[in-house]
């Protein structure tokens, strides 16, 4: 049982570090060869590999949303290798606001996040595109 709780704590710490914009703390929670999978056809969509690429992506998401992007994890399900959370998220940019939920699934290896997949729902696709566009931030 201790390993399960530590995985949940790891994911909670990851979200807390992102909220503080503490990129050193975020980096310490990820493996060097992390694989990060964002769905859809947005500018940020696709698979991102390696610590530097993932950190660039996370920072860019904050930048293009003018610092408004926030995530709040709620419920957790944990197995010996994975932790999943439902996260409520909001962001705005240029007077457009978008919000939704996502199921985030994290694979844990060596007490750090090794891989992540995201499954969003409950959002306005046009608002999402406007807020998270990498063009003209």
TrEMBL record:
SUPFAM superfamilies: NTF2-like (SSF54427)
Entries under Pfam families matching the protein: SnoaL_2 (PF12680)
Source superkingdom: Bacteria
Domain SnoaL-like: 11-115
Transmembrane segments: none
InterPro entries noted in UniProt: NTF2-like_dom_sf (IPR032710), SnoaL-like (IPR037401)
Protein known as: Nuclear transport factor 2 family protein
Organism: Actinomadura rubrisoli
């Amino acid at each position: 049982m201790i390993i399960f709780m530590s995985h949940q704590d790891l994911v909670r710490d990851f979200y807390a570090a992102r909220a503080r914009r503490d990129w050193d703390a975020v980096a310490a929670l990820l493996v060097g060869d992390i694989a990060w999978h964002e769905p859809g056809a947005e500018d940020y969509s696709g698979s991102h590999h390696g610590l530097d690429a993932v950190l660039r992506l996370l920072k860019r998401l904050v930048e293009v949303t003018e610092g408004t992007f926030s995530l709040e994890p709620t419920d957790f399900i944990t197995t010996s290798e994975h932790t999943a959370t439902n996260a409520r998220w909001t962001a705005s940019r240029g007077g457009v606001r978008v919000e939704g939920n996502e199921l985030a699934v994290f694979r844990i290896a060596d007490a750090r996040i090794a891989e992540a997949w995201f499954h969003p729902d409950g959002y306005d696709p046009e608002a999402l595109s406007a807020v998270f566009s990498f063009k003209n931030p």
